[in-house]
Amino acid sequence: MSPPTNYGLQQLMELAGLSVASSIREAYVPNQHPRVLVLCGPGNNGGDGLVAARHLRLFGFDQVDACCPKTKFTALQDQCLAVGVSMRDVQQVQSHIPLKASYDLVVDALFGFSFKKPLRSPYDVLVNALIPSADPPKIACVDVPSGWDVDEGDVDGDGIRPDMLISLTAPKKCADRFEGEYHYLGGRFVPAAIQEEFQLEIPEYPGSSQCVRIL
To answer: 209, 155, 213: which is closest to 181 by C-alpha?
Structure first.
C-alpha cells in the first residue's frame, strides 16, 4: 500500500484546473480563439473548470465566460471574477444557442467519471447545446465528455463529439473512443508509488509542463 498523499481538495482542483488551461493554451491560440465559454457542473469537475477559467483569462484569452449552476465553490467564482471572468446563468447561455455565433471554444467541465444518466435540468440544456446537431464551436472536454459512460463512451451515439479531451491523472477507458484532434493528459501530481500500485501508464511530462499531449 502506497503512503497517503494528503493532498487537499483545493490543491487537487488547482493542479487539475491549471493543467486543463495549460493544455487548452497549447492547442488553441488566444488570438484565434479569443471567446471561451466554460460550463461547470456541481461537483469537483466543475471546480476544475472554474480554476481553468481563471487561468485561461490570465493566459490571454480576451473573453472568458463561466456558467456554473448549483456550484458550491463560491470562492473559486470570486477568484474568477477578480481576473475578469464573467459569470453567466443558464438562461443567458441558452439565449446564445447556437453557441458558435458567440464563442470560439467551449470547455465542458460539467460531469466527470461519476456521471450517471439521465441528464437533469438545467444541465440537459447545456449538454444538448454541445451535440453535433446543435452546430457547436470547438469543444474541449475535461476528463470525460459529459454524458459519456466512463468505460464505454457515447453509448447511445448521439452525444458530444469533442475536438479536444484533457484526461486527468490517467486516461479513462472511454478515451479509447475519442476521435477528436487533441488528447492531452494533465494532473502532474501522482507519486511514483501510486503509479506503480495501480499500474498507471503515465507518459513523461516535458520539462516543467503541467500537461503532455497524447494524440
So the answer is: 213
